[in-house]
Protein 1
Amino acid sequence: MTDRPRVLVVDDDFAVAALHRGFVEFHGGFAVAGVAHSGAEALRLVDETEPDLVLLDVYLPDMSGLDVLQQLRAASPGRQVDVIAITAARELETVRSAMAGGVLHYLVKPFTAQVLRERLDDYLRHRAEILRTEARETELDQDQVDRLLAAPRLGNTAATLPKGLSRTTMAAVRDALAEHEGSASAQEIGAQVGVSRVSARRYLEHLVVEGRARVAPRYGVTGRPENRYLWLS
């Protein structure tokens, strides 16, 4: 037996599911419990394999991944199955429903192996914090509650967002910048994420302050240099 967290990969695309499985196996900190290509198969494998974490697509052939999430929560109230949503769905209502269902992360396709690895690393830190807390007192103080809530939300970045910035958009901007080969402008990131250039710049500047990105000016023939941003892995 292994004490590594067991992961169930759920995606209707066989090639994408195999790719995600490979990402998980390459990470080294997890064991793959199985792969499902439909909602019904996912629910069946959850019962059979009892995974700790589900990488859940939203677009499935027989039901929405949100329905799968809802049934997971209703079927096992005494046993917490953690979920990371991995999907191309960008609609606000879908994101809100996923967050209300208790997903630890909402990862928008397409993304790089590095981005998924960071989410898996966040999950391991979150899991370790829970295990440490379980080994201590059953009643938590405010500091312990705050750590548990912040752990799976992009580390310290999400816990210290300035007023007016959302965690969901922060994650989308961060992923978009991390996926770029080289630097990107606020205009490019805003177009990719679906926010204005001004809004994208606010999120990018916060990543700079957090030390996760740096400004990379591009000097043209005339006028002021264009501020571009480079992800620091």
Note: The first helix runs from residue 14 to 27.
Protein 2
Amino acid sequence: MIQEKRIKIDIRHLNLYFFKEKILKDINLEISSNQILGIIGPAGSGKTSFLRSLNRMNELETGSRIEGQILLDGIDIYKKELNVVTLRKRVGIVFALPVALPMSIYENVVYGVRLSGNNDKTHLDEIVEKSLSEAFLWDEVKDRLSLSGLRLSGGQQQRLCLARVLAMKPDVILLDEPCSGLDPISTTWIEDALTELKKLYTIILVTNNTMQAARVADTTAFFLMGELMEVGLTKKIFTDPVKKETNDYITGRFG
């Protein structure tokens, strides 16, 4: 029997403004649990702004305002009474440039956990091994956890940042160009990790690399000038898109 997909995030008529400029325009999108949603589109299409809407990071910038709803497990994340810190634990984000902290690999991973008040060494040890393993980094660093995270390569630092997010036990992982600037081998490590992680998490991946979306995403959404032009199964988006603009973008005619 085919298991029905469960909707993890339901976005309804989302509009995002910075001051008077409308960045996102009436976005309607359902994101299923335990899948990778790839988000593609040219620069300035609203991909990162959309991603940052999902854990309210746009609020950190002056002049931002939203209309519409974003429901996480049926709860509107923009309700005034909702705890934003708790939300950002549940919806973690990995940025384009790795931001390793100037401390050991071990302390990088448990940084957020310690801030939450958990300092039990046995528990922290378990979190470090589990998180680094899920990020496909444990075997490379298990014998040098006291080494500064800044001493790792760029690709390793990005996986370390992923491990730091995983340590907080999120429901959703947001990735904003996580392989930008990485070599092909490091990119493969990240992609392999994501393919395994979707068994446990819902993943939303913004990428300018259309072939990366084709390789790892279950569904793909194409954004253009703040609008969601098309969304569907990745294979269909890349072989038989509905919109001419989608086809023009993925075939390199613009973007």
Note: The chain has a mean pLDDT of 94.
